[in-house]
Amino acid sequence: MKTENELKKIVQERYAKIAEGRGAEKASSCCSTTPKNKVYNIMMDDYSETQGYVSDADLGLGCGLPTQFARIQNGDTVIDLGSGAGNDCFVARHETGPEGKVIGIDFTSAMIEKARKNAEKLGYNNVEFRAGDIDAMPVSDNLADVVVSNCVLNLVPNKPKVMAEIFRVLKPGGHFSISDIVLVGTLPAALKEDAEMYAGCVAGAIQKSAYLGYVEEAGFQNITVQKEKPIQIPDDILAKYLTPDEISAFNRQGTGIFSITVFGRKPGKKPQQAINDLSGLSLDRSCC
Prior knowledge:
Elements: H1 4-20, E1 32-33, E2 40-41, H2 66-69, E3 77-81, H3 87-96, E4 101-106, H4 109-122, E5 127-131, E6 144-150, H5 159-169, E7 170-184, H6 189-192, H7 195-199, E8 206-207, H8 208-217, E9 221-230, H9 235-238, H10 244-252, E10 256-265, H11 271-279
Parallel strand pairs: 3-4, 3-6, 4-5, 6-7, 7-8
Antiparallel strand pairs: 1-2, 7-10, 9-10
């Protein structure tokens, strides 16, 4: 079993290659793979009709559309975990408007560089990208109204630590909407132990019940699965890891690999909500 640092290094190296567009690596990501030179976009959702979409920032690394469910308001501060080349940040920026602020966090320097260049080309001065781990965010407490992430938490070995960090950086009353890969059932050892499958979001996925349990344990309320879709791994991808008999057994056992989009809210009220509540109170001074 690899250590946390070894797993992070695997992911970092793979995603640096994707950012730099080196050979087949650009198409070998969380959402696609290239056995026999045939590309399967087996997880990603289509962003192309989404307002704020930037094609140069879309590397096909997501497994959902968390910004679609994130209830971002004009003027919000939004943090995107694992921001890649910046696409989800730019979609979020469309929702916050120029009055808001969007911060992307990624631990791959090549991704940060690519995202910053994209933001400069767009002339966005309220979108910034910070280098750092999402399980130790370079962000102060109680900063964000909304946190989003797209197919990234499954790549982090210590998922409870990430959930605790999300709780820390959200304002009271703030919320997150995160798309991720989860399991129902057990993966074969050959898939679970493979570095490529880990970087491809499958081997790092945990049980759906455990994932939602970590969200609850972190202190979030109003936890909701906003969207769920099954992911089917094609047989010619499985053939890299399993024999034909093992593939048949895997398909028969009904192991579910799902993309889910999860919502959770941090308890409390945002400062403006608290002010509004106070302004609605009438003070009884009859005793004085």
